[in-house]
Amino acid sequence: MKAKKSLGQNFLVDNNILEKIANITPIENKIILEVGPGTGNLTSLILKKKPKKFFAIEKDNELSKSLNKKFKNDIVIINDDILKIDETKIFDGKMTVFGNLPYNISTEILSKWIINLKNNFWFENLILMFQKEVADRIIAEYNTSNYGRLSILSNWKLTIKKICDIKPESFSPRPSIDSTLLFFSPKVNFVKIKNPYNLEKITRIFFNQRRKMLKKPFNQVFNGNNKILDKYKINLNLRPQNLKNNTYYELTREYENLKS
């Protein structure tokens, strides 16, 4: 099956990596969701672990037909666009999610999942592949050049662990860049924000000019509110990357309180 560049397809073919992914977390008797199964290389290994139920979302019509033919009644193929699907409607219970995400929409998929999360998580874990550059931004710590809006949003409700980097030769066709496998698990305790889009708004304003000092974006949002400055001990001479992600969650709550 030929990969389609328009869909960002790069099929993982390295058996060692495939085995590593399939063994990251217990699968037996679990509900599995695989995003972008492609030719079914990982699918086959997951099925050997005897999951309770297996769903797969594949946008490519030809691949969907091939997967249906190959796995028959062992998996439920959903031939649709992951960005248009409400994952909570697939199964009434927590799923373990595997995904070799298309590079061109990987951040959009992750952002969608985080923003749409309610108090009850619809997944147990996420095991996702990203372009290494994107993964570096997701797991970046504050005070580093990769730290920014994606780091803050990703770490809000999720604990993230890097599993490994993966070289281009592990794929067919070979991408021009390295990839990284990340493991996400839900946090028990996180800062409660009424509307996640407010977190997006706050981080967009603060990181709009990430090399500039905090004074301008802070005044734009809070009109120089000294009580907030003192409460969170914010130095307006610092830059956006110097504030911990937890500070941005608290600032979003302050913003929501002021607007309510």
Summarize the structure.
With 260 residues, the chain is an alpha/beta fold. It has 10 helices and 9 strands. It has 2 domains: 182 residues, Rossmann fold; 64 residues, Helicase, Ruva Protein, domain 3 (Orthogonal Bundle).
Radius of gyration: 20 Å
CATH C-level label of the largest domain? Alpha Beta
| Fourth-level CATH superfamily of the largest domain | Vaccinia Virus protein VP39
Number of domains: 2
CATH architecture of the largest domain: 3-Layer(aba) Sandwich
Helix content: 25-40%
The strand line-up of the biggest sheet is 4-3-2-5-6-9-7
Detail the poorly predicted runs. 3-8
Determine the mean pLDDT: 93
- Quick one: how many beta strands? 9
Sheet having the most strands: 7 strands, mixed
- The helix-and-strand class reads alpha/beta
Which strand-content bin applies to the residues?
15-25%
CATH fold-level name of the largest domain: Rossmann fold
Distance between the termini: 54 Å
Any idea what the shape is?
Answer: elongated
H/E element order: EHEHEHEEHEHHEEEHHHH
Number of helices: 10
